[in-house]
Design brief:
Helix content is 26%, strand content 27%. The chain is α/β, with parallel strands linked by helices. It has one domain: Rossmann fold, CATH 3.40.50. It has a 7-stranded mixed beta sheet. The longest helix has 10 residues. The protein is globular and about 35 Å long. The protein starts with 24 loop residues before the first helix and ends with a strand.
């Protein structure tokens, strides 16, 4: 599991507004707890579908993706003001320590989840910062999303977070996805 990359040739499907049925803009904003001074990292930002939804509500947004091609799609779809595109993996985020208040992963956790990626997220988050994860659940209905072999269970996400020094505040399964919100302990 983990460490696969979304096929950039299928990038157009990432712009389909039906994705909101798995995580709406309003739900994501509530989970993130965005405010005017928030510095946000979108991990696995892809074409910027969710990045564009969050960016107007925060001070600064970093959109991280391993594929430069995805950033090209992001630019074509519209790059929100004050979004900084970063090319890199979740295991080696090109940001200084304590650089962000919130890191968010929407439907990408299964692509990068590992002890090293969670440790790296802990490094770039300020103490008390939050990690918001919404991803395809292993226990989901599997009517959409990746193959079951590429999914994690909610317990896996909770375990990765806790092992990296996070306290889990929200952990719940839904029909197709799970939500895990964790706070970096000081």
């Amino acid at each position: 599991m983990g460490f696969h990359t979304f096929d950039a040739e299928r990038a157009a499907v990432l712009e389909d507004e039906s994705r909101f049925r798995f995580c709406s803009r309003e739900e994501l904003l509530a989970l993130v707890g965005a405010s005017a001074g928030t510095r946000l990292l979108d991990v696995g930002s892809g074409t910027g579908f969710y990045t564009r939804e969050l960016a107007p509500y925060v001070e600064r947004t970093y959109a991280l993706d391993v594929q430069p091609t995805m950033h090209a799609h992001h630019r074509e779809a519209g790059l929100a003001e004050d979004v900084h595109l970063l090319v890199g993996a979740a295991e080696a985020i090109p940001l200084r320590s304590d650089a962000v208040d919130v890191a968010v992963s929407t439907m990408t956790f299964h692509e990068f989840a590992s002890e090293s990626s969670l440790a790296e997220l802990a490094r770039v988050l300020r103490p008390g910062g939050r990690l918001v994860t919404v991803d395809w659940s292993l226990s989901g209905e599997q009517a959409a999303g990746p193959h079951p072999d590429e999914r994690f269970a909610l317990a896996d996400a909770v375990g990765f977070a806790e092992d990296a020094g996070f306290a889990v505040d929200v952990a719940r399964n839904r029909a197709e996805t799970f939500v895990c919100v964790a706070r970096l302990e000081s």
